[in-house]
Amino acid sequence: xxxxFLRFPGGKAKALTFSYDDGCSEDLRFADTLTKYGxxxxxxxxxxxxxxxxSVEDIEEHILSxxxxxxxxxxxxxxxGTLRSIExxxxxxxxxxxLEKTFGRIIRGMAYPDTGITRFHNGSSxxxxxxxxxxxDIAYVRTLGGDNNSFTLPTDWHAWMPTAHHxxxxxxxYLDEFVxxxxxxxxxxxxxxxxxxxxxxxxxxxxxxxxxxxxxxxCEKVANNNEIWFATNIEIYDxxxxxxxxxxSANGKIIYNPTLITxxxxxxxxxxxxxxxETLKV
Length: 282
Fold this sequence. Notes:
- By secondary structure, the protein is of the alpha/beta class.
- Helices cover 31% and strands 20% of the residues.
- The chain is built from 9 helices and 14 strands.
- It has helices spanning 27-36, 50-53, 56-62, 85-103, 126-135, 171-180, 205-209, 212-222, 233-244; strands at 4-7, 14-21, 41-45, 69-72, 109-111, 140-142, 164-165, 195-201, 228-230, 247-248, 254-256, 263-267, 270-274, 279-281.
- The two termini are 14 Å apart.
- The relative contact order is 0.19.
């Protein structure tokens, strides 16, 4: 049996993304820094609170026009694990409706507000939250509380665990490990699966600690690295789903791409690219 692995755009085996919460004024400097280094991030906004610190024009200019993503973070920033389903539905839906009306685009991503799904009260459960989030067409949700250096893609998109908060004392070591990972055919085949580094936090934490230079140190570790795809959360989700949508013949030697996304993959060390609507024989 052959080994087949997803590869990110351009045939890259690694991807990196950022996810930052709450829509505070420091998001503008944070977004400008990511843009300067050629990186991409997702900004999770509370539709009620964001307008207190950010103008729509600022978000358009510094975030959306530069290829970053805007995502849901709750209308009132309330933890889904503490809400009855009807309250959770209202908080998520009203936030999504407001953001889509404000920015004139479809918004499908989210980060859990506050304690999210780390604890549950009032009859809430992860199964209930996942059900209504799915029905509200929320494609993915970032959670927290499990920093690690496994660099794996999520198996459950509604409980997407990031790699590390930017203040994790090991983050620079994690980045070195990630950057230096050998993804060539010299590596034991089962270990050649795609790798993702996912950084999260709040931009207001940098002035509190007076350590904006720490953000530069993080960005400098990965910037201009041709082995890494820099993407927003939703771009990673859509790309993985496109790969998972490929259609195969019974013997796996004919592959059809029914999506609108060009997909890359590796079969036994040989790189393939399949365009939208294309049928490929391997």
